[in-house]
Amino acid sequence: MTKRSMGILLGLFASIVVERTAAAQYSFTNATLRPISNTNVCLGVAGGDNMSAGTRLITWNCDSSKNQHWTTGAGYSWYTIRNQQTNIPSGACISLPNQAFTPSTVPIVWNCSANTTDQYWSLNYVSTNSQGHACYTIQNDLANFWRMSETLYTWNPAQSNGVVTLQSVTQPITNQTWCVY
Hints:
Trefoil (Acidic Fibroblast Growth Factor, subunit A); 2 helices
């Protein structure tokens, strides 16, 4: 192998590592999460601004309300995802009731806690949508620990007031891919 071809190979490898690292360490502040299949609806909390601990997640038409805005918290290989509108003193994070991470579990918001593994989420880069927004599957790390692939899933994303549940990763993953706006 020549020095030139070795340099090209190393440069290509470096660009792949940088791109992979950037995707793996993505975080967001005050962003909306929208299904890639319908970017007119946003992930939010049922009951809007009157949420309380235990309120389920839904999708509905994006309307700029605070309960449709999310911020990631720091983690090692995972993030907490905190809602911007909260009546809960410790904050409201996406959580799983009773740490249930099986398919069809309905995610809720709950008091944020650094010691609660059902609030740990991985952002797995999928693609960039046509408007240039990064899109991810959002996988619960507790399920990942048990070698399960449950991610946030929206039923009927073409409609507002859609149900959000955990589902195993399927192909195509359009109902499991969320774009950050």
